[in-house]
Task: structure prediction
Amino acid sequence: MPLVTTTEMFKKAYEGGYAVGAFNVNNMEIVQGITEAASELKAPVILQVSAGARKYAKHAYLVKLVEAAVVDCPEIPIALHLDHGADFEICKSCIDGGFTSVMIDGSSRAFEDNIAETRKVVEYAHARGVVVEAELGKLAGIEDAVNVAADDAQFTNPAEVEEFVSKTGVDSLAIAIGTSHGAFKFKPGQKPQLRFDILEEVSRRLPGFPIVLHGASSVPQDLVKVINQFGGAMPDAIGIPEEMLRQAATMAVCKINIDSDVRVAMTAAIRKYMAENPSHFDPRQYLTPARTAVKEMVSHKITEVLGCAGNA
Result:
């Protein structure tokens, strides 16, 4: 099947009490690891591209890699999504360039300005069969071009969601309930907490509407240990407990973004391989276990966190 939008994915996810994984992609091995896992588990999947990924790999290469995955895994629905589009022009470029879904991130703008910019993107996207995600509230943390200090983070105000969705016509909404970008989400000793009360109130005000969680990597401590064991320096890397994400997936959350966990899995595999095989210099030698690590991570997320296996 060709690339799809997330419309049908989210409808089935909401009704089925699971979430679709949105995994960030930067190169061939990551695309292959993600889609091979999804294909084996018969799970829908969203491959998403950040501003940093477009700068690193270039738009045309990433689109062709994803198109190759569609050919290689024809039995599962795959959507190509822009993660954190900063403005209309970036969203327009991706819409015109083959993406089936875009996110316009106006969360740093004033409420009315966020509405205006989001509406502009929605009008352009919908006329071309592309769906749009927007964001209310601001997540803390650092990931690619997104950098929000903890003091500037803001929980989503449920009182604003109805007006925002009504005035913009957006297809899904990312909200801030305590998740955070990057691999260092919390200070040592700080207990991660998600504001399920906000999620419940948002879903009450927007019944049946798909909600998105950004910054939802769990930063597995066993992989952090491997990285540190083989020359890395990631002290105090802490993520969101997976049981909290699973609970969110049974509620109104239809899309969960995962980036750092894929990076951590890949880096742990490469560091271990290079340390154990110091004479090897062929990238295929160390990228093969790295790709396997990505696949294993995604398989784990699909089965144990997202609950979307068998829903392709």
In short: The chain has twelve helices and eleven strands. The longest strand covers residues 78-85.
